[in-house]
């Protein structure tokens, strides 16, 4: 018997080796060459599907919808689930309304491309049905809602919605890829209220349709908001400010509720709704030299001009350097040494109520000097200035008012340190005399100016201005909105200022164009000097004199005298709010035909 294998054993060994070779080759083919089983394995899993809640809707104070929801679908593209054999790209682009280039850009530029998931893309119900018919692997649709705006008003006021950024996701883990978030305005300020809570469904893609979804968590709809805005008043104000640059803010003095807030120019909020046109529309607005996306009503810093004379007079009375019957002379302005602040022609001398009605510059220059140079209280004028500044801050200038509107500007009230640095500590009341009439370094937002009108209307206090009146499921707002905020000036002094404002409209003053029979309108014009062109036109007002219902500011950049354009705009808004109608169509026509040149806002070449 030799050491070799028998023929039978050798054959058996060869058969075993052949079988293993065949199995190895088959495994190699399945795992490396043929990807069908790989695709089946990848697709045979339970998929978590986010269920997005409808966003809370926004109503005006009278129950009219300002921002509502409409149904759409998001296309979510997961790369690893896409067929490797390709698909009909041309047909896909036709269905979802994208160009091939735009689709390729989505793949190439998505901030989530490393996570194999692309940015969501909203489509209509009809598009969703067509996409489902194509049945392309890796393309999933989920129900969503996007905004629509019935009146097309309040762009800056309401804000917009966009897909959350990766930076936001990294800061706040309650957001994830594909979520929507409020951008600016009410949508951002009340994001936590409006957004709702996402739901979650576990989906077995191979189960029968009726058994495919297992609800893990039900979505919770966002809460609706009733805001303080009057939709009709807002629309009128936007129409009157068309082709102009500036702002309008109206407040209900007894509550601090903002009745209208217009930043001009504005934009149609429907044009920034998430969709294929949003990018182009946003680019157009962001490149507009008149900056329609900038909310001038709460952010821009303007010199208040002659409207600030009301504050100067009130501080003078509180400091006991002014009595309403005191008279000062005006010889076409204030003249002392080399200092000269001009004024227009009117009778002289004059007491305070007539100085307010006619907007006399010289009168309030005298008052300002008496405040700072009051030897009975202050050793030097700089100490008097510090006291003056504290009074001004108590009126809400130089700081945020703590409203519920994000992005609120502070304006600016200069400090002693500022002037010490500018004038090398060598300055006095005459150096900064322009502050007395709202010029110089003084700056304020239109919201702060409207709040000043409300303070005078209330005779010494205000409620923090706010844009939301009611939140669904919430009994009340933050307590700060119900608390009276008093200035440092005693309430007994305000009636003298009110009398001057009433005379300005109803007697022989600079704002007689604001007269409304039977409503005792009170007002104060302002013509704010502007080194870059024609003066700014401004006007603050409230009405009626007793139990005032509305306080308003209109600020029109480069509009000229306050009486030229700010007065008629404010008067029409007051008429609409108080009487629910407009009986002066000729005045509406005048305002709409009033053209202002804005060469400083021309696009740079």
CATH 4th-level superfamily of the largest domain? DD-peptidase/beta-lactamase superfamily
Low-confidence stretches: 112-119
What would CATH call the architecture of the largest domain?
3-Layer(aba) Sandwich
Q: How many β strands by DSSP?
A: 20
Q: Overall pLDDT, averaged?
A: 88
Main sheet characteristics: 6 strands, mixed
* Strand content bin: 15-25%
- Category by helix and strand content: alpha+beta
For the record, the CATH class of the largest domain is Alpha Beta
Count structural domains. 2
Q: Termini distance?
A: 104 Å
Instruction: Tell me the overall shape.
Output: elongated
Indicate the radius of gyration in whole angstroms.
34 Å
Helix count from the secondary structure assignment: 21
Percent of residues in helices: 25-40%
Oligomer: single chain
Task: State the CATH topology of the largest domain.
Answer: Beta-lactamase
Description:
The chain has 605 residues and is an alpha+beta fold. The protein has 2 domains: 46-79 and 119-125 and 140-227, Penicillin-binding protein 2a (Domain 2); 231-267 and 293-601, Beta-lactamase (3-Layer(aba) Sandwich). 34% of the residues lie in helices and 18% in strands. It has 21 helices and 20 strands. The strands form 6 sheets. Strands 2, 3, 4, 5, 10 and 16 form a 6-stranded mixed β-sheet that branches. Strands 12-11-20-19-18 form a 5-stranded antiparallel β-sheet, sandwiched between helices. Strands 1-8-9 form a 3-stranded antiparallel β-sheet, with no helix packed on it. A hairpin with a 5-residue loop joins strand 2 and strand 3 (65-77). Helix 10 (231-240) packs antiparallel against helix 20, helix 13 (309-318) packs across helix 15 and helix 14 (352-358) crosses helix 19 (494-506). The radius of gyration is 34 Å and the shape is elongated. The termini are far apart.
